[in-house]
Specification:
The complex is a heterodimer.
Chain A: H1 2-5, H2 7-144, H3 150-163
Chain B: E1 18-20, E2 23-24, E3 27-28, E4 31-32, H1 33-51, H2 61-81, H3 89-107, H4 125-147, H5 168-177, H6 179-210, H7 215-259
Antiparallel strand pairs in B: 1-4, 2-3
Helix pairs in contact in B: 1-3, 2-3, 2-7, 3-7, 4-6, 4-7, 6-7
Chain lengths: 164, 261
Amino acid sequence: MPQIAQILETYASQFFWLLIVFGLIYFTIGKGMLPKIEANMDARDRKIADDLAAAERARAEADNLGDSGEADLAAARLVAQGKANEAKAKAAKDAEQRLAKADAEVGAKLAAAEADLAKASAAAMASIESVAAEAAADIVAKVSGAKVSAAQAASAVKAVMANG
Amino acid sequence: MAGESGKIDPMHQFQIEPLAPLNIGGYDVSFTNSSLFMMIVLGALWLFMWGGMKRDLVPGRWQMAVEGVTGFVNNMVSSSVGPEGKKYVPLVFSLFMFILMANFMGMMPFGIVPGVHPFTVTSHLTVTAVLAVLSFGTVLVVGFWRHGLHFFSLFVPHGTPWWLLWLIPLIELFSFLIRPFSLALRLFVAMTAGHVLMKVLAGFVINGLNAQAAWVPLVVSIPSFILMIGITLLELLVCAIQAYVFALLTSLYINDAVNLH
């Protein structure tokens, strides 16, 4: 086995070159290149994590915005509804008032007209009574030749008219 | 591969041959085929990592592969040590990648080029021992640095009955001290055994084909070849598993030093 047979002749050379080579590997590759590669991997992991966090934040913000928009919309709708109701009520009251006023005017006019009408019909009735009494006296005189006083005729006409 | 007179020596692949003699302070530190493959491992590992250095936000295929490996080691360390394990990721990563690349480089079919032999750096006890000592030494330094002499409480697990206090620390101490040996031997033996097995099977295939009798290739070479395909795939799995085991045990030992059970 040359590993053991040659050990006394070769150990110095083996140690010497191995320490040089392993030292180079440790200091240039292990201490030099490896940390850079790891730093790059860490930076990538961090970037991915940061991007994910930012996306999550943006999503939450958008959700919030949507919620508050909806709430704003609902509030605005409520206000608008209130205003509309108010306006409707006001308009209704206005119309009622106007209607009542007009009603009152019309009523007054109507009452006046009715009064006029009643006065006129009473006057007409009175004139009809006197005309009828005259006519009755004339008719009696013509038919029977009897003279009927105006007072008698008027009472007779009043009795007839009272009957019908 | 082939030794003299047509014999195939399965141990020849572990032979260290100096390529450029070098002597520093009386020590023979020649540049050998083993050193060459360490350099190849370093180059391959550097190339692999360099491909992942584009640092795009959206990774390409190569960057994804590099980040997969670094993420795997990072996960392993942080799940066994906890958040304080971040400091030890470079060490565990270097151990894991060096062993993995060295194992795979030993499996590469460089042998199809005449005169070139792949060499498995991690099949040498001298190499795995240094790696194990690095791992164990880190545990010792971290343990005494963080806890001082209190680190010895590692040898008295919680809930030890008082009448076992003479035995349990002894067993714990023994199991603690055996760690570097088990780390080094496990890797060394697994790689050596696998490569010997593959070489022996390859020898069966080749010697069977060279045999005089016509029935030998049919009975020996073809079954050996089929078996060898399976063994090679298994060996590729072992390469990854051994690197994983070494790195995982190192991070578990560091956990002992950092958190004291």
